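Model it.
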Amino acid sequence: MTKPVGPHPTTLRKRPQRPATTKSVRGKRSLLAKQVAREVCGFAPYEKRAIELLRNSLDKRALRVCKKKLGTHKRAKAKVEELGRFARAAQN
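Modeled.
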């Protein structure tokens, strides 16, 4: 596609993708490694406690347990969401 800029015709080129756009996407290998580790090692004690709290519908308390262990609210929310998916899958 040409677009005149001043007296010279120029061609717009596709900019390369920046690394920041793919930052949060997990690759196939690391996803597989995480799944294998989860199968082999199971859950940490605080994760088991959080799952039990989620089963008893104490979501806020589970978030507190995870936040205490992981340090940040954002990481704790992600962990509670992950553990919640596991707890719901186990119930069904």
